[in-house]
Amino acid sequence: MHYLILTAHRIRDHLRNHSVILLLYLLGLFASILFFLYYFGNFAVADRFANLYGEQLRTYSVSFPEGIAPDAGRLAALGAENVLVVYHDAQVDPERTNVLILEEEEIIVTDSQTGEETVMQPGSQYTVQARSDDTYPYGAKFGSVEFPDPLEDNCIVLGEISLSARPNMDVLRTEPNPVVCLDGVSYRVLGVHDYGYESCIPYALFAANRLTVDRLEIIVPALLTQAEGDTFAAQLQEMFPQAQVQSPYATYSQYLAGEEQQRADALRMASVLLAIAFFVFMFLVKYLFDLSRGEDVVYRLVGASRETVTLLCPLEVLALTLLAAVAASVFHAALFDVLFDKINVYAGLEYRLRDYVFVAALSLLVSAVVCIPFLIGIWRNSILVEKNKYQ
Amino acid sequence: MKRIYLFFSSLRESLLADLLVLAVLTVALFVFMDAYGMYRYITMTYDLTQKAGLHARAVYFCPSVDMDNMETEEQLRAIKSEVEALPGVQEVLIDRWGTAACGDMPVKVTASTESLRRMTPAPDRGKWFEEGINADGSVNVVVAGKQFNDAQIGDEIPVQIGPERKPYTLRVCGVLSIPAVVPSFGGYGSQVLTSTFFKSESGLLIGEDAFDTLFTEDIERISSQFFIDFDQNASQETIDSAQEALTRLGGYQTLEDILRDTRAFNATTFKQVMVRPIFYVVIAFVLLVSISLLYVFKRLKTFSVYYLLGYSKRRILADMAWRAGLIALVAGAVNFAYLHVYSSMVAAGKIEAVVGACYFGAEADGMLLLLVGGMFLLTMLASALVLRGKSAVVFLRESRD
Asked: How do residues A176-208 score in pLDDT, each as one tens digit?
């Protein structure tokens, strides 16, 4: 307890006699810790995964070997809380299709992850998708990419990329009634989108035309942790026993491992930057240490050990660091909505109490480490030399 | 001489702290200026597009042609002619280019119209040509990029054009240094930004009349996308009908949408690129002020002696200014040198792996000057405030040793 009283006394003494130096030191620590908080939140916490990967980390994929009906009750249940994307592999009718270039030879497609090869028949298969919220992130490569509301007929927006059939731009420009016929149903072509997705039809049409769902993607509204995601994937597997369920954590495991590494590197980098800043600001504290030497001599003369006198200095540094860390945390939390949220690189970042505690603890640790070289001089001080100097 | 000796002897007293401050300040300024250059490289295309003075409803147009088709070029030309004939269309901005042999190297030669020149940065050396072809038959050229970074105004560049390799002489009237951002209209995607219209590349920019003389249509190429500007006096209905016609020829995005998307992108880019360096500079600035004031406090006794020996407080302040000024000057000079050797270093392939693509115009010099000057002045202001109202006796009383 008497250490704390002595430390408080010394800080009060510095504040009374050398307030400028003390305040500059606190300002330096405050600015450095504030920066560390920003850096920590933006580059070293897990929450940003959700922002970085957007929907991808929230998308659970289910493949059906036999396909299921679009109005299956299970889909309705899933769609109540989540966005569903349904895919159907349709057969093109070349006779009634006037805007597709159909491949004449079969294509062998190799899955990049499993290495599994799929033989696509020449110009016969064409995948269409529909999304339950009918919202797509694409622009127009040709014509319009907006579905009419209300729907008047069967319509489709073609995708640029398709395996066995692609839009014929020459014909699209000249053909007054561009049409594709899928599974015997004709669709009026509204336009061509510029995204690397399949062709899209309105969700209502998918069900109305009773297209079988060959693949399903469930986009959950909020990012699930890996454990929650595994549980959700298990529920999906239970719901669709014959299907193959893929969790995003399995799909993006390599990316996530890389992200973990980047986060660790970012934290190390930030700690080094903090240490450099603290080290240079320590010159201010060293000046204050030097001012307290007369007091140290008195302590030694009345029986304090060398260790005791030396220990007072890091205690002083830690107390000031704690003060700066608390001030920076309060400042950051108070101005988060009006300032820091606006300059965050990733939208929606949240700082929890444990983040502030972690940053404060790390700041104390860094302070303790960087003040060691400055203690050597105090440790080496001879009581006789100091006594004569201040006598 | 005596003052110089005193100055250097005082420097020795706080050498380690001064060197650390110098290192931190130099690095902080370097990181800041590099980030600023990167930010400007990304965002300058917004300014360049605005400088073109296009109609707000001008569109960036992607013709629907099959890029795998052997006749793509003919289709593009046909669509361009069709677009030019649409009511309300004032100009089609397109990248017309051809390839010339410059020694053993193929080089891109671009037709630079007045509108395109407005969308191109001013040459770093020399100026844009007024006449495409000179009286002696030589062609005026503005050279751009890494391949021509060392070219001098007045240099003559012999080129050969076409299958029969007809020789021409191009005379350099301007040099666009690295990054040499020029309109190319090559990109298209779900989100079109102003950067989509530009490319940083080596090449030769000549007048449209000169281009028509040098390149016949069979060896000329055109960009796969182009900008369509409308007549400022065209009615809303005319533009609506022209835009409707364009949907039959391909897809487009309006300039106002593109500028809006680019503004949002630039704001995000600012946060990604600039916020960290700003923190670095703030911390370096606090450090400079702190160490400078520490120096004042440490030398109060010396100053009191100077004061008693007849120094005015202004001279004491001038002594301190030398010290803080030297640190700021060295840090500023290192960074100023970096800004001005960047192009040559990139051209020589020495720093591309270390730093990203940057654009350092005159504004970068101004920004550096503002930072260094501002830091120095504020440091001196803080020092003057500490010294304010202190007599020799107060100096002595407050000095510690």
From this structure: 888 999 988 999 999 888 776 688 999 989 988
Q: Is B352 helix (H, G, I), strand (E, B) or coil?
A: coil
Q: How far apart are CA A339 and CA A35, in angstroms?
A: 13
Please tell me whether residues B194 and B337 are part of one structural domain.
no
- Let me know whether B121 and B262 are in one domain: yes
Do B190 and A194 lie within an 8 Å CB cutoff? yes
Q: How many domains does chain B have?
A: 2
Q: Please check whether residues B290 and B360 belong to one and the same domain.
A: yes
Enumerate the residues of chain A whose CB falls inside 8 A of the CB of residue B190.
Answer: 137-139, 193-195
Nearest chain B alpha carbon to A285 = B294
The size of the A-B interface in CB pairs under 8 A is 117
Q: List residues bridging with B97 in a β-sheet.
A: B110, B221
Phi and psi torsions of B85, nearest 5°: -85, -5
- Two tokens at A206? 């998918």
Chain A interface residues (partner B, CB cutoff 8 A): 18, 20-21, 24-25, 27-28, 31-32, 34-35, 38-39, 101, 137-144, 168-170, 172-173, 191-195, 276-277, 279-281, 283-284, 287, 290-291, 343-345
User: Are residues B99 and B119 both part of a single domain?
Assistant: yes
Q: Are residues B144 and B265 in the same domain?
A: yes
pLDDT of A373 reads 84
One-letter amino acid at B275 equals V
Q: Say whether both B177 and B238 belong to one domain.
A: yes
For residue B251, give the nearest of A142, A279, A287 by CB distance: A142
Looking at the fold, whether B344 and B318 belong to one and the same domain comes out as yes
The confidence score (pLDDT) of residue A389 equals: 62
Per-residue model confidence as pLDDT tens digits over A286-338: 888 888 777 777 887 787 888 888 888 889 899 999 999 999 999 999 999 99
Residue B144 has a pLDDT of 92
Separation of alpha carbons B4 and B171, rounded Å: 52
Residues B103 and B176 in one domain: yes
Residue of chain A with shortest Cα separation from B399: A291
Residue ranges of domains in chain A: 2-51+256-390, 55-251
Residue A34's closest chain B neighbor by CA?
Answer: B279
Domain boundary among B253, B269, B285: B269
pLDDT digits (tens, 9 = 90+) for B171-212: 999 999 888 889 888 777 667 889 888 888 889 999 999 999
pLDDT for B328 equals 92
Q: Which domain holds residue B119?
A: 54-269
**Rounded Cα gap, residues B351 and B354, in angstroms:** 5
Global pTM value: 0.76
Rounded-to-integer distance, Cα A347 and Cα A214, Å: 35
